[in-house]
Amino acid sequence: MLPFPHLSHHIDQLTEIIADQGYAVVPEFFPASFIAALRQEALALQEAGKLQRATIGRAESSKLDNKIRGDLIHWLDHAQPSSTQQDFSNSMEALRESFNRHLFLGLFELENHFAIYPPGAVYNKHLDQFRGNEERQISCILYLNEDWKEEYGGQLRLYLNGKEAEPYIDISPTGGTLVVFLSGRFWHEVLPAIQPRISLTGWFRKRGSTLP
Ligand code: OGA
Ligand code: MN
Question: pTM, whole model, 2 decimals?
Fold first, then answer.
C-alpha cells in the first residue's frame, strides 16, 4: 500500500520521463502536510546540533571547502526511521521498483540526507558520481521549503549537455518539488539563496557497491 493517493500516478509519469530524457521535475510530488512534517524533522535536527558540514570527494580523501560546497547535512538512519521517514522510504521503494522494472538499472538501495544551505551557501558545478565509481545511479532531490519565492534564488541549475555551459534549466527549490536525474550524466550546481534552503536528497545505488 502506498502512503499517498496519486503517488502511483506520479511514479508512472516520472519513470516514463526519465526513460525519455534522463531527468524529470515533478511539482507537488508529495502533499504539503507531508513536506511540512519532513521540514520539521530537518529543522529539529538542526536545532539539536545534528547537522554536519558536508564534505566533497570520496570518504578517504574528503575535505571541507565553503567556496565549493556550503551545506549542512544529516544522513538518515534506516535502522531508526520516524513514521514520516518510513512513509518517505515506502514511497521511494515504490519508485525504485518502478525504475528497476522499466529502466533495468538494478538499483538496490537508497541513501539519503537532509541538507540545509545557509543564506549565501552554494554547491559548485559537479557530477554526483565520483570518478571511477558508478555506484550512484539516480539522484533524487526533494525540496522542503515553505512559500519559496523566485527572488530568493537558490535554484538548482541542471546542465543538459554534459559539462557544456549551455543549455541549462533552473529549478526553484519549491516545497514538494521532486527532481530526479541520471547521476552519471547530468552536471549541476546550487545557486546562492537569501533564505535558508532545505532539501532531502538521495541516491539510488547499484548492487555490489560499497558505501562512500
Ligand atoms: C547534491 C546536490 C542539489 C540541490 O547534494 O549533490 O547537487 O538542489 N543538491 O540541493
Ligand atoms: Mn549533486
Answer: 0.94
